[in-house]
Amino acid sequence: MKTIQKGLIAGAVAMAFAAPSMAAFTVDLGDKGSISFGGFIKLDARTESGDLAFTSYYRGAGVAAADTSVTNFSVRESRLTTTYKRGDVTAFVGMDFYGGGGNELVSNSAHPRLRQAFISYKGWKMGQAWTAASNLMAIPEAVDFGGPIVGMIFVRQPQISYTSGNWTFSVENPESYTPGKYAVGGNGTGIVAANSNESTPDFIGAYTTSGDWGTLKVSGIVREVTAADNSKHSAMGLGIGAKVMLGKDDVRFQLNSGEWGRYIGAGQGFETGDFNGDGKYEMDSTTSYTAAYRHVMEGGWRTNIYIGGLEGDESGRSRTHVGANLMATLAPGLTGGIEVGRYTINDDSLAEGLSNKYLQLMVKFGL
Fold first, then answer.
1. 131 neighbors 123 (Cβ within 8 angstroms)
2. What are the C-alpha distances in Å from 42 to residues 75, 317, 337, 350?
3. What is the CATH number of domain 49-74+138-366?
């Protein structure tokens, strides 16, 4: 009996720590090109406690809630993607299930949420995609939805971009995160652009270089932000991100400084405010960062440690997210993992800091 129990426990642990291969299924359509179906199914089991309201993943915000103690199971991060290729044209659509809806009493239904939908043609990208300033290669491998989103450039939006060699230039949808001007839905997702005073698109430029050593990207943004009193503010920001290979291991980081506003931390707070109490609205300037180390071991096992944070100069915001996980491959395409972490808010406006700690397990299968 003890031998059977040990076998079951070992099997459960192995399932908890397995990792994915995200190969898509492709159908050849002959002269009409090809269509591929991909994505993954992911089960998360998360327990969380502390001074902040429960959330299925951390970004740059948080709501105070005394004595939080919650355990939650979810498959909403599961993703479906479709890619259609014909000649030089590629069309891509991807969605997950963080679109709201459903309940935990009976059906646990969840609405699909559009993530990306774009067309690529000879260097052009037109549609909704990750902003050209995103440092996707620097995102840590995490059990939590995105890891230290608090310190990342983390925006998907409609855009027109062009890439030539190492350079990318993009014109993207404008939106100001301003009190009374922005419709907010569950988990900080915007419902509809509520600010009718946006007239100038966001302009982004980026330079990317890569080699056997890894990838490095430098980006900049120029945009116009509308405050609650309808005053206009010019905003600029610079960022750098990289993934550096150390044999099988790697280090990933990004550093962003300036008036990035809503681009940092998936909407970490209002971009403008009367921060000095003098009736004059100004733009908040932030410094944000992430750093992660990934160590690869034998048999598909690996471990990741990461940290991310942001500091707001005018707003006095100060938030950090640290995490560590262990993952392994159980079978082709099948991944599991366990992660522990803590998210902390130490804003100047608080008498004392707020924080939540969490433990999260996942099983993910790449389609």
1. no
2. 6, 33, 11, 36
3. 2.40.160
pLDDT of residue 17: 38
Structure tokens at 250: 């790697």
Q: Residue 149: name the closest of 255, 251, 270, 60 by CA.
A: 60
CA pair distance 284, 16, nearest whole angstrom: 42
Which of the 8 DSSP states describes residue 249?
A: E
Neighbours of 199 (CB within 10 A): 9
pTM beyond 0.85? yes
Degrees, nearest 5: CA angle 149-231-280: 85
Region of residue 343 (left: phi > 0; alpha: psi -120 to 50; beta: else)? beta
Strand residue runs (E) in 247-353: 249-258, 272-273, 282-283, 286-296, 302-312, 318-331, 334-345
Is residue 358 within 8 A of residue 48, CB to CB? The reply is yes
Question: Cβ distance 145 to 57 under 8 Å?
Answer: yes
In terms of phi and psi (left: phi > 0; alpha: psi -120 to 50; beta: otherwise), the region of 113 is beta
* Beta bridge pairs of residue 190: 184
- Taking the chain (367 residues) in runs of 10, the rounded mean pLDDT of each run is 40 38 76 94 97 90 91 96 96 94 87 97 98 97 95 96 98 86 45 62 98 98 91 94 98 97 89 86 94 97 97 94 97 96 94 94 95
CA distance 179 to 56: 25
Q: Are strands 64-74 and 25-28 parallel, antiparallel or unpaired?
A: unpaired
Answer whether 110's CB lies under 8 Å from 101's CB.
Answer: yes
- The enclosing H or E element of 102 equals none
Residues, the chain:
367
Q: Which residues contact 26 (CB under 8 A, 6 or more apart)?
A: 34, 35, 36, 37
β 167-172/282-283 pair status: unpaired
Give the pairing type, strands 214-226 and 25-28.
unpaired
